[in-house]
Design goal:
Distance between the termini: 92 Å
Structural class: alpha+beta
Largest sheet: 4 strands, mixed
Order of helices and strands: EEEHHEEHHHHEEEHEHHHHHHHHHHHH
Number of domains: 4
Strand content: 5-15%
Number of strands: 9
């Protein structure tokens, strides 16, 4: 029996068990006495002993027959994405035609799908896996509930009864969680890590908060120049569930995660963080760790730490605005939340409110939004809705409700709302805060929430905001020729440096409404306005 039969190129033109030429699936192996089957995705198979007989044994095997059906039964689905190879002849030894585009047996067959190096045609199992991965990624991208996939296999089988892929599709809620976490999620995380490793430096963003189940979740992001996308990217890295979340535990979790994935911590340029004291301690610990690692790499040169620009400017702006309003006894947040809570759980009250609006020929727009205490500047849109519907709100609470509900006198929530609505001072306060939001803070808040890098523009924007706040109540001659850090040396709290009541910025609408106040109320109002401006400046 021969033991050294070599591969013969004439075999490519011989017919197989389907009556078609073997070149559709056959090519020479890496050695002279071997061959490869493209559709079976096999490695080198020996033909040294039997020659053509070895090939016949292979193409008569059930596995090969099933693979041929999978490939040529759905010839448009292959792993190749290279469109330039379509309708090309098989001239390269490293690329092989796996399907033909002609249905006429006598016509010249032209290959229209090419399987290149490291590419192959999809088998039936591959098609199922591909379909399940696509649905898993769509579920993650569109934030679809995992439970929505519970009966999806039955639905697909009913929708596509002629599809074998739909028949064998088996992705349900439990399986999809594993596919995302251990399959597609694992793949994309590795791709991210590869991309970050190529970067010359990156910014690490982190945030720790309490989630459902009373657990601490630490979210970590990268901001870096992506060599793959050729732009600056902000990408989610991972979430870490913690019990205790002290500075030592959080910083160690971050460092251990980076080192475990082979990411060089000396490439960290800076940290993006919120303002709590625990995050300041985390930055100090990470800074020491980075300096120590940089000294190990280059002991001769001085090792610099992280670039520090402070905490998130959004939190500082929200905090300064909150402290400014809270420095008075206005209790704006309590008044807004009382009105919101009154309608939040009652369909009947909402219906009555709409009827009142129709009875006084006022156009009802929308109910009051809930005010969130951690987003103080966003109080502007909440107040805007109250001011726009001020007449309807007064009519509903002060005229309509007393005639329909006799128990109101014992309702503390109603009594609080009634006191606010009967106070002429209330609308003046609302309009002044709305003026602050629209003229000073809205623009900078919108600007700071952009996705593109803003660090190179942050100083100018912060300076402009501080200058505009000072210009609202400080005399212009005091601010003249003061730039940058010089603004901090201004004695803005001195009465002689502040504008008179007639010139202080409170907005035209606010000034129109203060005409209904008494002289004493006007005096108190402007004292509060000065206090708000001074507190915002100090806190900022």
């Amino acid at each position: 029996m021969p033991t050294n039969t070599t591969f013969c190129s004439k075999w490519l033109q011989k017919p197989d068990n389907t009556g078609r030429v073997c070149s559709r699936w056959l090519k020479q192996g890496k050695t002279a006495s071997s061959f490869q089957c493209i559709v079976c995705n096999s490695g080198d198979l020996s033909c040294a002993n039997g020659g053509w007989a070895d090939l016949k044994k292979h193409f008569n095997r059930p596995k090969h027959i099933q693979c041929m059906k999978d490939v040529f039964g759905s010839i448009s689905l292959t792993a190749s994405n290279n469109q330039s190879l379509l309708l090309s002849n098989n001239k390269d030894d490293n690329s092989t035609c796996v399907a033909t585009g002609s249905i006429d047996g006598s016509a010249t067959r032209k290959p229209f799908v090419i399987v290149e190096k490291e590419q192959r045609a999809l088998t039936h199992d591959d098609k199922i896996t591909r379909a399940e991965c696509l649905w898993s990624m769509a579920t993650a991208q569109l934030a679809i509930s995992f439970n929505a996939s519970q009966f999806l296999p039955e639905i697909f089988r009913s929708m596509f009864p002629d599809s074998q892929v739909a028949t064998d599709y088996s992705l349900r809620s439990r399986k999809i969680s594993y596919v995302i976490s251990h399959g597609t999620g694992y793949y994309f995380t590795n791709e991210l890590i590869k991309d970050v490793r190529k970067a010359y430096g990156f910014t690490l963003l982190f945030d720790e908060t309490t989630i459902a189940g009373v657990r601490k979740q630490l979210d970590i992001f990268f901001r870096y120049w992506s060599e793959t996308k050729n732009c600056i990217c902000v990408r989610f890295y991972k979430s870490i569930i913690l019990g205790h979340a002290t500075a030592d535990i959080v910083s160690r979790s971050i460092i251990d995660s980076l080192k475990a994935d082979g990411i060089d911590i000396t490439k960290i340029l800076m940290l993006g963080r919120d303002n709590p004291n625990v995050n300041k301690a985390i930055e100090e610990i990470l800074n020491k760790e980075v300096i120590a690692e940089r000294k190990k790499k280059c002991s001769s040169a001085p090792a610099f730490g992280l670039v520090s620009i402070g905490s998130c400017p959004l939190h500082i702006i929200h905090g300064s605005f909150r402290k400014g309003i809270k420095s008075t006894s206005w209790s704006i947040d309590e008044a807004l939340n009382d009105i919101w809570f009154w309608f939040s759980r009652s369909a009947a009250r909402r219906q009555d409110f709409k009827l009142v609006a129709a009875s006084i020929n006022e156009i009802y727009s929308r109910f009051v939004n809930r005010f969130v205490d951690t987003r103080w500047v966003e109080i502007g849109p909440v107040i805007a809705r109250v001011v726009d519907q001020w007449d309807i709100i007064r009519e509903y609470f002060l005229v309509y409700l007393p005639t329909t509900d006799k128990k109101l006198e014992s309702n503390t929530k109603y009594q609080s709302i009634k006191t606010v609505l009967n106070d002429n001072f209330t609308l003046v306060k609302f309009n002044f805060i709305l003026f602050l939001y629209r003229t000073l803070f809205k623009k900078v808040l919108t600007w700071l929430q952009q996705e593109q890098p803003l660090i190179h523009l942050l100083y100018d924007e912060c300076y402009t905001l501080l200058h505009n706040v000072l210009l609202s109540f400080v005399k212009e001659e005091v601010l003249k020729d003061k730039n940058g850090i010089q603004l901090l040396s201004i004695s803005f709290d001195l009465q002689n440096n502040q504008k008179k009541n007639l010139n202080i910025d409170i907005g035209e609408t606010t000034r129109l409404h203060i005409s209904s106040l008494t002289v004493n109320e006007k005096t108190v109002f402007f004292q509060d306005v000065r206090q708000i401006y001074c507190t915002i400046t100090v806190s900022y």
